[in-house]
From TrEMBL:
GO terms for MF: FAD binding; oxidoreductase activity
Pfam families for the chain: CO_deh_flav_C, FAD_binding_5
Keywords from the UniProt entry: FAD, Flavoprotein, Oxidoreductase
Domain FAD-binding PCMH-type, first and last residues per copy: 1-223
InterPro entries: CO_DH_flav_C, CO_DH_flav_C_dom_sf, Diverse_Substr_Oxidored, FAD-bd_PCMH, FAD-bd_PCMH-like_sf, FAD-bd_PCMH_sub1, FAD-bd_PCMH_sub2, Mopterin_DH_FAD-bd
Key word Flavoprotein present: yes
Protein name per the record: Xanthine dehydrogenase YagS FAD-binding subunit
Length: 328
């Protein structure tokens, strides 16, 4: 049994001050659907837990620029079913509804989902070496059970997959993460928010000690844009992606004028494919084009001992997602 202190924050400055001090780590808790699991497994051992559920960060509101601001504490179920999200950002609604279970979606928050930890079995089992959990100990997954793990963005030190559905959709939507911390307020594009593992897989995001995510900003949708999220998994519910694709497309005068593509289940972070976007833009949408874009997206894939099937699976997933988006 690991002892820890527990406090409730009434304001954002109070929350930040509660976690920014020196010494043992502190963690914010909202829905607790990931942190509590990690504590039970002895993977997370915070000295201080700060409950932030009392903060006024649970709203979904339109912005003057025509976008949408999703509060950090907005529950996944509420975001997925929000009329503006369903109408203007369908890919996000579909991604959220494909994740976890209704009970978990009722508890899980937007910011908590952004910070969801990997499901790699070696990260979650303290009896095995894991550079993400304990830097410098090695990566047991390289020669172990790696069927579910990444084929894009990997390194010799880590091949763990980012498990989120929400974050793949947010990447395709070019969301911006809003943060408040000891250094003030700042915004980080989601593409820069997540870090590749490299030699420091324990550094997963751009967050610094004391930082609190306050919201996620979605830009105004491109005129005429359609979007879609497709998730392939071992079973139809309550399962993580083997491969997924989030697509945002605009077709005008018979050609694709705007394309955003992100992949899930195959990357060490939500994987935006600039290569696929380039292959799509300016061309007439058809199956052959979609397949070429998928080939471009997976060109740099590095499969491991058990997950080579993911290369073709991801190609087919993206090809189908693109076709579904155009015909929607």
């Amino acid at each position: 049994m690991e002892s820890f202190s527990f406090t409730r924050a009434a304001t954002i400055p109070q929350a930040i001050a509660s976690t920014a001090g020196p010494g043992s780590p502190a963690r914010f808790v909202a829905g607790g659907t990931n942190l509590i699991d990690m504590m039970k497994l002895n993977v997370e051992r915070p000295a201080t837990i700060v409950d932030i559920n009392g903060l006024a960060l649970d709203k979904v509101t339109p912005t003057p620029e025509g976008g949408l601001l999703i509060g950090a504490l907005a529950r996944n179920a509420d975001v997925a079913n929000h009329p503006a999200v369903k109408a203007q950002y369908a890919v996000l609604s579909e991604a959220l509804l494909s994740g976890a279970s209704p009970q978990l979606r009722n508890m899980a928050t937007t910011a908590g989902n952004l910070l969801q930890r990997t499901r790699c079995v070696y990260f979650r089992d303290t009896a095995h070496a894991c550079n993400k959990r304990e830097p410098g100990t090695g990566c047991s997954a390289l020669e172990g059970h790696n069927r579910m793990l990444a084929i894009l963005g990997t390194s010799k030190d880590c091949i763990a997959t980012n498990p989120s559905d929400q974050n793949v959709a947010l990447t395709a939507l070019e969301a911006t993460i809003q943060i408040q911390g000891t250094k003030g307020v700042r915004s980080i594009p989601i593409h820069d928010f997540y870090k590749l593992p490299g030699t420091t897989p324990h550094i997963e995001t751009a967050l610094e000690p004391g930082d609190l995510i306050t919201g996620v900003l979605l830009p105004k949708p491109a005129a005429g844009a359609k979007s879609h999220y497709l998730k392939l998994r071992d079973r139809a519910a309550y399962e993580f992606a083997l491969s997924s694709a989030a697509v945002v497309l605009t077709v005008a005068s018979g050609r694709i004028t705007h394309a955003r593509v992100a992949l899930g289940g195959v990357g060490t972070k939500p994987w935006r494919s600039l290569e696929a976007e380039k292959a799509l833009t300016g061309h007439t949408p058809d199956t052959a084009l979609f397949r070429r874009a998928a080939e471009a997206a997976l060109h740099g894939a590095k499969p491991q001992t058990e997950n080579g099937f993911k290369v073709e699976l991801a190609k087919r997933c993206l090809t189908r997602a693109l076709a579904n988006t155009v015909t929607a």
